[in-house]
Amino acid sequence: MTLSTYLTFDGNCRDAFDFYREVFGGDFAVLSTFADGPDDMGVPEGEMDRVMHVSLPIGSSVLMGSDTSTTHGPPISAGNNFSISVTAESVAHCDKLFGKLSANGEIGMPMQHTFWGDYFGQCTDKFGINWMISFTP
Question: Chain centroid to CA 74: how far?
Fold first, then answer.
């Protein structure tokens, strides 16, 4: 199991991650925009160039991020612009962690198989901390 930090931006994710790449070095493992997603995502045409996902390996950790879209995620404000991302060991492990973390909290996206191939879900725990749980088969 690994923990990573996931940052969320309102249209300037690419600029931020170019800066972080300058600071820490290395190359992006992934950089995709909403235009790279399936057609049925419902993202407005003017937001297709926003970053859907970026990951920058830093040492033994990974800094990840994305932009919001008017159709995906709440508006950004200080405090809700980051998540702790957990890469679990199996689908069952995801379900166990997600069930415990989301208890008395809020589910943003139930655990499900995604178009990018992961089993993934998002929740906010009862203390207001945002979590992303995933497993890559």
Answer: 13
- pTM for the model stands at 0.77
**Domain that includes residue 114, residue range:** 90-125
Work out the burial of residue 87: count CB atoms within 10 Å of its CB; fewer than 13 is exposed, 13-18 middle, 19 or more buried.
Answer: middle
Nearest to 86 by CA among 97, 102, 72, 74: 97
Domain count, the chain: 2
pLDDT higher than threshold 80 for residue 74? no
One domain for residues 94 and 112: yes
Read off the pLDDT of residues 85-117 as tens digits, 9 standing for 90 and up.
999 999 999 999 999 999 999 999 999 999 999
Amino acid letter, 97: L
Claim to verify: residue 7 and residue 63 sit in the same structural domain = yes
Instruction: Read off φ and ψ for residue 62, nearest 5 degrees.
Output: -135, 130
